[in-house]
């Protein structure tokens, strides 16, 4: 049985709402046919990737402009993945005017399409909070993991054009993790070592992602104090593998279903996190930048950095990347001023992984993010030291990494 469309959907596909909607329907339908979907499902929100001008380039910008010129507009709440610069403070950070002009033009093209131009990989921290069983179409890997696993919403990892198309028609194809039968765990993970800090959760995620690839893990033996720890876990598994959904016994909303473990599942035992710390670390000693907020930081994560700085001045650059709305909350609470008094910055809108970091002359980064440590060497050409938040703050203060 092939993909069945409603009369309304068939009309959109035929161009009844204009060429922009027709193009979006063609993309959504093509994806549905490729993946064997039988129907489309309405989505309540969309998060679009393909935002940094570094990745899109002029060709991607013209594609967006052309779509907007065809009167295409999103019909559900839609936000963006991080950009390549802080959209307001790019010049103070040292990024070039040439790159900034291209990036701001991309944001304007999305604005013409009706997108709410919040640029963040944590839309769930700024009001986009789907409920259990709710269908969405999100694109960024850590956001997809969070939506599926921690919120119990349903989304595949959408590509950039696919997510934007879903936003324009308010539909996505019902395949993959939108379906009950694909949400069962196929890899049971027994954790037999202490997992306490956010960097520990990232290290665990790095190891499991390597083994799981695109399977669904089910964790036993995890003591989780805050959702930010699960954010780090999911982001790491999505970066080292392609995990888009996981369950944690006693924690995540679908973990206690009697059939959560699929028949024939495999078992992985993790009893040592040191191989992950070793794999994610270089031998760099001098630190140019300490980077926090990958995925984008929550208010408690910003508060933790401020507490650890304790008013001390940093010798290295220090960035905390966050959604602009989170930065505004932090500013209202005096946290931005505290970071800046120490010589650091709370940076909005952007991610170092998709930024033109070579423009800044940086060579080394300290970070507690396993996702960041996975991507920075290949995407930004930077040497990484990976460790706890405490280690990274101390590296910023002293300018060197202490093992």
Mind explaining what this structure looks like?
- The protein is an alpha/beta fold.
- The chain has 3 domains: 7-178, Aconitase, domain 3, CATH 3.30.499.10; 184-277, no CATH class; 281-398, Aconitase, domain 3 (2-Layer Sandwich), CATH 3.30.499.
- It is 41% helix and 15% strand.
- The strands form 4 sheets. Strands 12-11-10-13-14 form a 5-stranded parallel β-sheet, with helices on both faces. A 4-stranded parallel β-sheet has the order 8-7-6-9, with helices on one face.
- Strand 6, helix 8 and strand 7 form a beta-alpha-beta unit.
- Helix 9 packs parallel to helix 14.
- The protein starts with 6 loop residues before the first helix and ends in a 5-residue tail after the last helix.
Number of strands: 14
The residue ranges in which pLDDT falls below 50 over 5 or more consecutive positions are none
CATH-defined superfamily of the largest domain: Aconitase, domain 3
CATH architect. name of the largest domain: 2-Layer Sandwich
Global morphology: globular
What is the average per-residue confidence, as pLDDT, rounded to a whole number? 97
Number of domains: 3
